[in-house]
Write a structure and sequence with these properties.
This protein is an alpha+beta fold and 426 residues long. β11 and β12 form a beta hairpin.
Length: 426
């Protein structure tokens, strides 16, 4: 952390700013103990705020543990142990009263001392890169990393007076509010798409007559085909380029659980032409291995360098007869219903189970016989995807703004102006 201390600020040990309580309450239930709801590691790691919306785990605890680790509004919880040191000291603010909820194992509860620190400010401070790096260096372990009570208590934090803490916290939390509201909008759009997929991919648009088929009730004029009849499964690269040609490369972690490409790197064809899966613009990727397949990993690939891509051998590749069919297959294969069916046909041992190529070739799917209807359905689903992407880019933009604000406000590089009322408030 920086050694520069802004005028009026001071270096305080964390133990002087807050009561530090590392929890030992595990997930086990004991009939001799009292029932509680447990705030667990993942509740903290994946959220900035701990609220009543969380489905807390039911467990038991001793009365002394309840007295010591019961959550109060304004508390901050940080991760104390993890498999990697960069997951240490990740914070979440308890933003409302939560009767009956206590802090669980692998977590440390920080209860701010009201005359010295503000919980909301501390939660933001722990997100600062320099603070995260400090705890990263202190994390002990080989296969599992953790912070000692001394390391947490003696962590030096540069903090402003309490009124300034409160003003900074208010500014940064207002940005968090915008992020959370936008994420809620994203979740609603994703829910809408799930419902639309179920409706449009099975009932189509405006049909009144239906028929029985091997895949269930479908519109009377739809057809049922094996995927292998409408797309090539794991095709070879059509035109091999020069060895020095640049191509795109996708790892499994470069695609999201909602079937989007998160990142692409560029490699020379000579470096990836052997030992990797090849694909081209317009192809559909489908993760074959557990748990990636069940989680929804895949993608519709476009914008590849020179139209060519290579990637993980754990991708199946589908190359449809035309773009409309490709987009139809992309939406169909990204749906939960299809992946649940694929999971029933996986082969291999636990942890290495895969969807076989023959399943994708032979599985039957329903589709409109009319190209215009297929195009309309694909366009509707694509439009929702674009709205989600737009919102996600908006969140990313706001997060970047918040990072810059944090660096300015939490280091004192930019000072907030306090009114007389705010200066007097403690």
């Amino acid at each position: 952390m920086s050694n520069a201390v802004p005028h009026g600020w001071s270096v305080q040990l964390l133990g002087k700013l807050a009561d530090v309580r590392s929890s030992n309450v595990d997930k086990k239930s004991d009939a001799s103990e009292l029932p509680v709801r447990l705030c667990n590691y993942t509740d903290v790691y994946y959220r900035n705020r701990i609220t009543s919306d969380i489905d807390f785990m039911h467990a038991t605890a001793k009365q002394g543990e309840i007295d010591r680790f019961a959550l109060e509004k304004g508390d901050v919880i940080i991760t104390k142990d993890s498999e990697t040191p960069d997951d240490i000291a990740v914070p979440a603010l308890v933003s409302e009263s939560l009767p009956g909820v206590i802090c669980g194992y692998h977590l440390t509860l920080l209860r701010p001392k009201p005359d010295r620190s503000n919980g909301e400010f501390l939660a933001h401070l722990f997100q600062l890169q320099s603070v995260q790096h400090y705890f990263y260096l202190l994390a002990n372990g080989t296969t599992r990393f953790g912070l000692t009570a001394e390391a947490i208590n003696t962590a030096p934090l540069i903090t402003p007076p309490l009124p300034e803490q409160q003003k900074i916290a208010t500014i940064l939390s207002s940005v968090d509010d915008v992020i959370e509201k936008t994420r809620a909008q994203i979740d609603k759009l994703k829910g809408l798409k799930t419902g639309m997929m179920q409706e449009l991919l099975t009932k189509g648009i405006g049909h009144t007559e239906f028929k029985d088929s091997p895949v269930g009730r479908i519109p009377k004029n739809w057809k049922v085909s094996q995927i292998g009849d409408i797309a090539q499964v794991n095709p070879r690269l059509l035109n091999k380029p020069e060895m020095t040609t640049l191509v795109s490369f996708l790892r499994m972690q470069d695609v999201s659980n909602d079937a989007k490409i998160l990142a692409k790197t560029t490699r020379k064809y000579a470096d990836v032409c052997k030992g990797f899966t090849s694909f081209s613009d317009g192809d559909v990727l489908f993760a074959k291995i557990t748990p990636c397949m069940e989680n929804g990993k895949g993608a519709f690939v476009e914008g590849l360098m020179n139209g060519i891509g290579f990637g993980s051998t754990e991708f199946h590749v589908l190359r449809a007869t035309n773009n409309d069919v490709a987009r139809w297959l992309f939406h169909l294969l990204s749906g939960k219903q299809f992946r649940e069916k694929a999971a029933q046909f996986m082969t291999g041992s636990a942890g290495q189970r895969r969807v076989p190529t023959d399943f994708l070739k032979m599985v039957e799917v329903a589709m409109p016989a009319c190209n215009s209807e297929m195009r309309s359905i694909v366009s509707a689903l694509d439009a929702l995807d674009k709205r989600v992407t737009h919102k996600e880019l908006h969140v990313e933009s706001i997060q970047n703004i918040k990072k810059a604000l944090m660096q300015d406000l939490l280091t004192g590089k930019v000072r907030v102006k306090l009114t007389d009322k705010e200066s007097a408030a403690v």
